[in-house]
Automatic annotation (TrEMBL):
GO cellular component: cytoplasm
Any one GO MF annotation of this record: kinase regulator activity
Protein name: GSKIP protein
Coiled-coil spans in chain: none
Amino acid sequence: RMETDCSPMELPKNTGFGEDSDYRDFEGTDVKDMRLEADAVVNDVLFAVSNMFVSKTLPCAEDVAYINVETRERNRYCLELTEAGLRVVAYDFDQTDDRLQTPYHETVYSLLDSLSPAYREVFGNALLQRLEALKKD
């Protein structure tokens, strides 16, 4: 499990979201914790990139987290993860560039597919190996 310098905010025990509340589908809050999401993103695709980790220097919160990724082509990116999705915010680790207007991607797979042909190849090969293994079962 990845470690980050961020600690989850303490939520009050009595949030007012009872069983009959309109918010019962949410676990005490209506916002996903992006720090946890970022860890999951990294764990999902780390095998297909050279390096990937949640930023320890950029601020992360319940609504935003930053992920550094180095593709197999040795290109470095800083990604912003929000409810809107993932997007490139800089072309180096632990940076953000407000002038950069890059599109949001719904998934890390879509984003990496657009950035890295080597990622696409490694991910595709892993998928084929899993399908072959399923056929044998």
